[in-house]
Amino acid sequence: MQPFDEELIHAPSKRRPKIVDAIWTLYASAEFVDEMIGGNKQMKQAQRVDGANEGSQLLPGFQAGGNRR
After folding, report:
1. In a domain, 27, yes or no
2. Is the pLDDT of residue 50 over 80?
């Protein structure tokens, strides 16, 4: 399996066709997926241990009820 797919959209020109758009579809590697799953498990454990924040992972200035301008 390739790590990405590429689709090029060409427009005619006097010489070579001109590329006017490109669409890339990226596929995650097995190592990346395993790392994300492990990180999510760590976040869930940290939320259980740190009940004082009610499960919020927001920085102090961004919590609900904070002053926004």
Report:
1. yes
2. no
